[in-house]
Amino acid sequence: MKLLIDSANIEDIKRLKEIFPVSGVTTNPSILAKERSAPEKILNDVYRELDSQDEFHIQVLSDTAEDMKKEADNLLQTFGRSLYIKVPVSKEGFRAIKWLSSEGINVTATAVFTVQQGILAAMAGASYIAPYINRIETYNGDGTEFVQKLSYWLEQSHFKAEILAASFKNTKQIEDALLSGAYTVTVPPPLVDKMSEHQGTDDGIKGFKNDYESAFN
Ligand code: E4P
């Protein structure tokens, strides 16, 4: 399993990487738009915080496969081959996924809402398929069923793609995705914190301290 941080906020990334077993960062244009610097600076700052084995997923913004390819080439020059180029699964996106994958570039097929889109992206050569769990649910879909079906198909097929479950709004969605066959998730910082917390843990820690101090101090 890999836990990625779905954010470009440098303070959150630094803090969470220190505490949790984080394996990289995913961004998209909306995530970059939340930060208060130029996108190039934000991406460079995030990159500096990553370890050499960490994954860095950056999304292209162009409309045509040709322009997506140009964006990807520029990103690769700056961020190296461990970069994952996130490509939304529009028709031009599928063209770009085929093209980039055939050149050995890591591609994350993103904005995936149906199992069929996921299968096509895996066949096109994507390394990761990113279903948007919460957004699937806002379109009355079932995120858990999506992950179960696509992970079953991936296990039966010879394609190398893995699921990178994304777009979470609560920790139950994350748990369900992980238990349904997604081994990699990208999680916004507040939910990474929430995944680790429980009142019972805090009460337990307080109780241990109190018991020890009343007995021995
Ligand atoms: C990550 O790869 C996705 O772009 C992201 O999780 C989308 O999340 P949202 O639905 O909260 O925008």
From TrEMBL:
Its main location: cytoplasm. GO terms for biological process: carbohydrate metabolic process. GO terms for cellular component: cytoplasm. It comes from Salibacterium salarium. This is Fructose-6-phosphate aldolase. Gene3D superfamilies: Aldolase class I. It comes from the Bacteria. It is found in: Cytoplasm. Keywords: Cytoplasm, Schiff base. InterPro entries: Aldolase_TIM, TAL/FSA, Transaldolase_AS, TSA/FSA_arc/bac. GO terms for molecular function: aldehyde-lyase activity.
